[in-house]
């Protein structure tokens, strides 16, 4: 009896160590004993093993089979003498295999319904292809290289949170594939840090992420008294800081969600200030006009801010500054379409004016073009002022009309005679003396007038 009690205690300890129930363990032991009996000489074709859980009494029962392979007749006790000792060696291997299968099945059932959940694991090893994370109860998760954040090098034996993407059932047990780049990781991290999201008061409507660089999320509140952005940021940014630390410093922009597309696109481009948003529903394009000094901020580094805004809003974003918009509108208002060459019904090339007037043949178009050029040339000749730049040529004949008039004046002066030089002071005095001698005095003329 003590032997049976010792066996029951051992099975209970084994069940507690493996995390399975005693009934499951007893079923696995019965299956192992059946396989051990089938390998014994003289074994019946149809037999099964029962184990009394109270006395641990092991019995083998059998029935006969008919031509169709169906059991019939009485149930017979065919337990071999000393069956437990004989089958112990064979049953050990079978039972170990059965226990491994049960353990794998339980692990698969535990994680099969957790796709889209977040788990915490300890980094075991990694190479260029994948990294292994050890979860609870010895379960290993696979983090492929494609699901890892670029330039993120986690240290061995460090804890890491990951998002469960897929759970596969394999012969060696469940294979759990996790990700560090999935947008769902952001949502789960905020649910852990923001109680309002976990309770459903605040909803995360949209998420756009470039792993390792920047993330934009749009949040909505079902309660008018709760600010969705403030709830996610927390007091002095405490809540969002925890998420940023888990993502190794990845920047996170939180914007309020709105059902108005223009407002959503404008808010998605934060921190840039948007002046106007124009939507084209046919092409799905949102043309965003920003001030000139906000253009680079709206586009972001290598277009990152514009790409994330497009993913968050679902619109194709085309950003333009006020200067660019004014230039495009001015260019569009000009009438560039003067006409085009088309083929008429006779197969001849004709010029069709844009105003819809009668088409011109090639000869008529050439004559009209020559006439227009001639009129333009004649218009340039009328009222033309003759003015030649003297610096354009070293020839003395290249002069302007004003210079020619000056030259005529100078020639007239030369014909009149050479110009006299102004007299010196001494010459002026001497000349004055001579003139004084020759000129009659006033006193001599006065008597003659009296006479």
Please give a handful of descriptors for the protein shown.
451 residues, N Utilization Substance Protein A, Chain:P, domain 4, OB fold (Dihydrolipoamide Acetyltransferase, E2P), GMP Synthetase, Chain A, domain 3, 5-stranded mixed barrel, 3-stranded antiparallel sheet, 17 strands, elongated, disordered C terminus
Written overview of the protein:
The protein is α+β, with helices and mostly antiparallel strands and 451 residues long. Among the domains are: 2-110, 2-Layer Sandwich (N Utilization Substance Protein A, Chain:P, domain 4); 113-179, Beta Barrel (OB fold (Dihydrolipoamide Acetyltransferase, E2P)); 182-257, GMP Synthetase, Chain A, domain 3; 272-332, K homology (KH) domain (GMP Synthetase, Chain A, domain 3, 2-Layer Sandwich), CATH 3.30.300. Helices cover 42% and strands 24% of the residues. The chain is built from 15 helices and 17 strands. The protein has helices spanning 2-18, 22-38, 83-112, 183-193, 195-199, 228-233, 238-246, 261-268, 295-299, 304-313, 322-333, 362-381, 401-416, 425-438, 442-450, and strands spanning 47-51, 58-65, 71-77, 118-126, 130-134, 140-144, 159-170, 173-179, 202-210, 214-221, 251-256, 276-280, 285-290, 316-321, 339-343, 349-353, 360-361. The strands form 5 sheets. The chain has a 5-stranded mixed barrel with strand order 4-5-6-8-7. It has a 3-stranded antiparallel beta sheet with strand order 1-2-3. The chain has a 3-stranded mixed beta sheet with strand order 9-10-11, sandwiched between helices. Helix 4 crosses helix 7 (238-246). The radius of gyration is 53 Å and the shape is elongated. The chain starts with a helix and ends with a helix. Mean pLDDT is 78; it is low at 383-422 and 424-451.
